Amino acid sequence: MSTLALTDDLVRKTRFAGLLYLVIIITGLGAELGLRGPLIDFADADAIATAILAAPGLFRLAIAADLVMALSDAGVAILLYLVFRRVAPGLALSAMVFRLIQTVLIAASLMALLAAWLVLIRAEGLSDAPLLALVFLDLHAHGYDLGLVFFGVNSLIMGLIVWRSGFIAKAFGAGLAVAGLVYLTGSGLRFFAPELSPAFLPAYGLTILAEAAFCLRLLSQRRPSGHEANRVSS
C-alpha cells in the first residue's frame, strides 16, 4: 500500500469522476424522489395506474434519468479505478467490479419499470393491469436494493482506499464506509425484514451527505505544489 503522487492527468480524471458523481446524485435523487416518487404509492395499485397514465412524460423522464445515472456510474467506476489503482491495485479493482455489478443490476431493473408502463398502456382496460404494474414496480424497487448490496461493498472498499490514499482526508473514507454500512443494512431489511424498512429510511440521509461530500472533494482536487507535493509523494 502506497500513497499517490498526483499528476495533471490524475487530477483531470479525479475531477471528471467528481463531475460524473454529481450527475449521479442529481439524476438518481431526481428520478426517485422528484419524478417517480410522487406517482407511486405501493399501498394503492389503482392510484399508481391513474397517476402514471396521467403523467406519462414524467414517468418516462424518470426512466431516462435512471439510465443517465447508470451510464455515469459506469464511468465513475472506471475513473476511480484509474485514479486509485496505484494506491491499492487489488482493492481498486475489487471496488470497480462491485460498482459495475451494481450498475448492471440497477440498469437491468429498468426493464421492470418499462414492463409496468407497457402493462398500463397495452392492457388499460383489464381489471388486473394496475396490480400487475404494481408487481413490476415492486420488482424494480427490489432490483435497485439488490444493486445497493454490491454498492455497499464498493463503498466499504472505497472508504478503506480513501483512508489510506494520503491525498484525501480520512474523514471522507470514513464517510464512505458509513454509507456502505447503511446501504447493506437497508437492503438487508428490504429483503429479510421489510416491516422495518420504513423506520430505517432516515439513515439514508447519511449516504447522501457522505457521497455529496466525496463528490465535492473530487471536484475540488488539485495537484499539490511545493512542500505539499513532497509530503504526498513521500
From TrEMBL:
The chain crosses the membrane at residues 16-35, 67-84, 96-121, 141-163, 175-193, 199-219. InterPro entries: DUF4386 (IPR025495). This is DUF4386 domain-containing protein. The keyword Ribosomal protein does not apply. Keywords: Membrane, Transmembrane, Transmembrane helix. The keyword Membrane applies. It comes from Roseovarius spongiae.
